[in-house]
Structures are given as C-alpha cells and as structure tokens.
Amino acid sequence: MQIREQIEYYQKIFSSFGALEGGGITRLLYTDQWYEALKRLELEIKKVGFKSEFDNVGNLFGIIEGYSNEFVSTGSHIDSVVEGGNLDGQFGIVAGLIAIQNLVKKYGKPQKTFQLVALAEEEGSRFPTVFWGSKNVMGIAKKQDVINIKDKNGKKFTDEMKRLGFKFKEENDRRNLGKFVEIHIEQGNLLENLNKPIGVITAITGQKRYDVKIQGQANHAGTTRMCYRKDAIYAYSCIVKEAIEKAVETDDLLVCTFGRVNIIPNTVNVVPGVCEFSIDCRHPDKKILAEFSKWLERRMDEIAIKHKVDIDYKLWMDQEPVPMDKEMIDLIEKSVKELEFDYEIMHSGAGHDSQIFAEFVPTGMIFVPSIGGISHNIHEKTDISDLEKGIKVLEKTLYKLAY
Ligand code: HGY
Ligand code: MN
Ligand code: MN
Fold first, then answer.
1. Which of 82, 219, 347, 380 meets the CB 3.0–4.6 Å disulfide criterion with 271?
2. pLDDT over threshold 90, residue 236
3. Counting atoms of ligand 1 from 1, which one is nearest the CA of 375?
4. pLDDT, mean of residues 44-64
5. Helix ranges, 168-216 (H)
6. What is the distance between the alpha carbons of residues 239 and 304, in angstroms, rounded to a whole number?
C-alpha cells in the first residue's frame, strides 16, 4: 500500500471512534469510544507485526524488537477535545504506525527497538487534568491530582478509570522511551501562510490554565436597581475585556482564551449570581507569561472588589515553555533537507505530550500545516500531500535514529 492509501485506511478506521454527525470527533478519556479506539489500534498494530502492551492507566505501546534494547519512540495522544478534529493527536499515532511498518518492510529488523506510543490523554477536555498519559509514562503523574476530580456530569475520574479495567501506576515508575519524535498538525496558520509543508519545532509554549468562580447575588431583574446589584456576569465581562486587550497590547505571541463559561441560574429575568469560567494563557517566554498572569490575578481581585462580588481562582495547569533537543532538531532538519521539502524552524503555540517527555529524553517535533489554521474544530483538515510529506520526514528521521 502507498503512504496515501495507508493514511486513508487508518484515518477512516480511527475517525469512526467518537465520530460526530457533522464530521469530526469527540473521544474523551475513559469513555467507551476512547477504549474501543485503543482496542482497535491494538488489533491493527498486531496485524503488522508489533507486540502490544497497555500500561495501568491505558497508554498503549506497540513494540518492534531491534537488535539492541535501546528504544526509538514515536506517537501522540488518542484523546480529543469536545467536537474536535480527527488529526490532533490521532495523526501522530497513524503516522508512526505507517512510518515504522514501512521502515521494517524496507530495511528489516532495526538496530534499536521501535516503540509506537498511543497516549491515553493530553487535552484535559473531560476532567481538569492534562497530560495524564505522558505524565504516567514518565512516572510524574500524581494520584492526588485526580483522586477527587469529576467530569461535568459528576462522574468521578477514578470510577471511570476502574470501569474500563485501568488503575493507578506506581509513582516514579518511568518507562524507557529512548529518543522520542512526535509529528503533529500545526493547529495554526503560519505554515499555510508561508506555503511551507513542514515545521521543525524548537520549543513548546508555556501554558497557564485557571478555573475561576465569581460569586455575586442572584436577584430580580426588574426590581433590583443597577447600583444595588452584585452582577457576576458584569464582573466577568470586565475581566474578559481587560485581559484580552492586555494580551493584544503586550506581545504578538501572548495568547489568552476564555473558552468555557457557566452562568447560574442562567435565566432571562434573574441577575446572574454565579459565573464559573476558564482562562488559558500562553507564551513561549517564561518571564512574559509569568508577568501577565501576575497582572491578571491582581486585576481579577481588584475588579471583584469594585463589583462587590467574591472571586476564587485556581491555577490548575502551570506548564513552563520547553525547548526541544538540539540534536533532534538538527536530525529532523537534515531529514527535511534530504527530502528537499521546504520547511520553517518555529515554536509550537499548542501544548503537546513532547513537552513532558522533553524534560527526560531527547525529544523532537515535526509539524504539518493546518488548512486555515483551524483546529480543535470539526473542520480541522490538512492536505493529504502534506500528511504524506510529514510521514516521509518522520520515516527518514526514525531511520537515522534506529538503523
Ligand atoms: O491545548 C493545547 O494546546 C493542546 O491541543 N492540548
Ligand atoms: Mn489539542
Ligand atoms: Mn494535540
């Protein structure tokens, strides 16, 4: 099978797990669709000669033995956002499956052992935790971070994990990845605007995510004069306006997103009493990100006082920017040059499992363009010719690492 046929074959299979009516997928950690996708992946990797094994939490590993037990690993996350695309994460697994099987077909048994990794969860879309898969691979996942968390329907993380037969790993139980390469869609529009098919990644942006709750006072919309109100939405909207405008004026690479909001009682003739919302802010420079979040917390406190409401915020994700391994960057760049593809040296504005691995093993990332820069959206798409180019770069890089 040619690479394009292989892409179509595997994308068709895995996009069916969590498939949505209008296209795209929702495939959340410890749901049945998530589990069925992993079980089908296990079947498909065994078909082409991989040995397969699950770890305690649901990461799936496909192994092709080499002459030595040094590892060369590739892969990405199997989970998605709500109403997301079928390339974010999934393409990294499909690409690794194609590249490794094609290398073994062409060159036989590798010197080093190939490891394809399907990571259980990266997005943080069902439960307020992120990188659950990759943190467990590296033995840095903390039981206390998830032991009491629930999804928006009140389902407990631990119940859902156990329901599918998974359980906690021993802390500090680190799996050997050797060297790790992740291919991923850019999820932005830089490569498309530059008309370049490949991105060679130098660093992954830093991220801070908050859950915030404003407690005002629900009251009658008709009889409560404006001066007597403790309006949670008004305070929220002042925070949103100020934070977005501050991000715009601070730096082109600073991004701030209010992605989720919940109003209580959310009723037409009641002054909103409670507003619960999320904040996601990012920058590739640690200092700029820290200064912005310090300013943000101060302004949230000041706005709450002015509006006579209470505010409570929890910084539940605080991920510093992470540089990729210099030798891995050079190796990927060399592979791209040998294939004579145009490319851009760039940082990643999205978070990835590679940022967890990069603190422990030599790690590199390859990007392919996203049409219109669209991602985390059912219309997420990449030209198959770019997917194919990306797999060729991955294949050449894995060859240099493993043969
Ligand atoms: O949000 C992110 O950056 C990643 O897609 N999880
Ligand atoms: Mn994502
Ligand atoms: Mn992703």
1. 219
2. yes
3. 5
4. 98
5. 190-194
6. 9
